[in-house]
Amino acid sequence: MRCLDFLKGLLLLGAALAAQAETVVTACGTDNAAGGVNLVSALATGGDIRIACAGGPNEIKLTGERVLSGATTIDGGGATLSGTGNGVMFVPAGPARLTLRNLTLSNPPANPADPNMFTGIVYDRNDLAVVELNKVTVTDTRLPFAVRKLVARASTFARNGDARQPDFGVVMAGELELEQVAFRDNLSRPFHALWRSDPVTSGRQISAQVRKCSFERNKRPAFWAAGELVIDQSSFTDNGDALPFAAGGRGWLYANRIYLELARSAAGAVEVAFANATISRSSFKNNRGMLGGAMLAARSTLTLQSSDFEANHALSGGALAYLSPAGSNPLNARLRLRLGHVKLRDNQAAKDGGALLLLGDVAGDAVQMSRNKAGESGGAIALVSASASPMEAVPADVGKDLPAPGSQPTRLELTRVFVLDNTATQHVIDAGAGIVRLANALLARNVSTAGGAALFAQNVEVANSTLIGNQSEGLHLAPGGTVGASMANVIVAGNQGNCANALATLKLAGANLQYPDAGCGATIPVADPSLDARFAPTMSSPARNAGSLAICAAHDLVDGRDLYGNPRSGASCAIGAIEADLVNDLIRKVGAERFPWLLFGLIVFLLICLLIGIVVGCCRRRKKNASTACEAAFGRRGEGYVFVQMILLALVLFAPSSWPGAAWTAPCTWLGKLFGGALLAIGITIALLACVQLGKNLTPLPQPRKDAVLVVSGIYRLVRHPIYSGLILAAFGWALWLNGWLTLGYALLLLIFLDIKSRREEIWLAEKFPEYHAYRQRVRKLLPYLY
Question: Can you tell me the distance from the alpha carbon of 305 to that of 281, in angstroms, rounded to the nearest whole number?
Fold first, then answer.
């Protein structure tokens, strides 16, 4: 008993300490309100604070700046905390952690016309504090958070910032973790990297994790620099205001020492500098900027994976501007843009790069660029080294340290790339002096309104690609290339001039095809490639099985695949971007929706032909022994019966259950599932029980084993063929469960066939067991007492 009393005492003491640790604020209105425990006294105590207003409005207005001396947690229970309108609400005195839950926080300026009136929620003067938000809404505050680390979940930031100084951040932090956070209608950057020492000399690493967040209608882009940024499953919509860029700004965005102060924004949704950024499974739609409608990445490594860019607008780089030449980042010697499964469509640039404006090392796989538009050049892609014109869109403080146009060529490697229906005044892909390698690329139906080319380059290698149907030249080789130009396993057809300036400089490898002119060289055959609507070779295409298998298999970018990832294997491969095969040909001919029905009809037709052949074989000669003829048709032990049974069971399980438009309606749907599930369970149980009771006599063939004995006990006292009974019940149950008219038909066919099969089986049973005749007289075949 003493031990038990001691434990009870410990529990009571723990409960008392827990109750004492939580301070409940009951006096609301102001933070120093009388009539109960107010927020000032609770903050002085520290620890866990819970707001439970005893009466009146569920709101507390702070009367001054509150210093936090220790770790503090405030659970508002839906309450609102508001500031004085001048200054901040909370100031951590040291490395204190502040946790805010279930609150609305607001500190609007008392005089909105005063541009120097600073309002905030938490300001960390010592760069030590950590703030955690959970289910918190932050509104109408000019600079809500400036802290070392901020963690936010299930929270919202709306209408914060300052239109006069928009390049501040709503959240300014050196470490950032955001999950399911919404930024809406903010006047300043949603978040901004913050540190108080030079990141080069201090060696401090900063990082941001942004997951499942949404950014909508913010006037300025989010910004991260000199650290790691990960954005996953997030959306950016209607951000940026596309205001003309004012040179100079508030300090240098990319100065020599890369110690960033407040950066003047240029992109629409996201900007990174001197960073290592990864963006995956995210979407960017209808954002507007000057340089990069959705995103600007300067002197950074950037990976874009499984993301969409749609209807973004900029002066240059409609979707993305990547300006990261080698050697421009002292924190990272290897800068590269990697694109994987990225879609860029309906983006626009007033000048160059309807989708992409590029400077640096770029590699991509499975990239789709469609319906993008550039007012000057690069309807899909423009390389900064291509001409001087893209540099005109680069703000002075961004471009001052970048190489002069053409002095450092961009390297662009793309495989499995779609370039469709893009438009530019000049070229669709404007590579200029850059080095371009394309494989498994499709450039089709692009438009140049002033006589440009689908692909304009000095240094280019094209392998297993198709340039077709462009309202422009197909390939235009500009003079002055240092690497050269080559083409292997390429189709160039139906363009307004297939090749220009190519005869003297273009190196040919593998097999190529051109039509209708011979502008790419007299050694390339001229023939209609005969491609279908998906640009794949048809059955009669001269490109089919005519490519160089060595290039298809060994080229590092082709990598034994085609545009859709299908293998280029076998004895030969196709010329062009797409490898044709018989199955895909058939699917394209009949349509993807009709193909399963065609396959089903073929199986049923073959099954009917087989059954007709069996019946004819059994009944053809009446003078001869019919059983001998049937044995010849079905096999000596009935193997043919098993084969037909397997086909019918496959139809029940895998064939289409109903024809289009024949869906069941309530209450038939749920009644079918109810009775179908019951029949399915009963049928499977009966079949399994019958198999167990047969024991060693069980055989898949209808003819009994040589050492078999007649089983007439157990479930065999009720029906002579309980396995067939179970299969039939299960088939009808499955059909009802699927609400499938066709499956009911397959089940009926199975019933008829098993009845026929059982008759032949009983002939063999009667021959082997003389007592089987009496057993058949007293026990029904498939249904007890009925049939």
Answer: 6
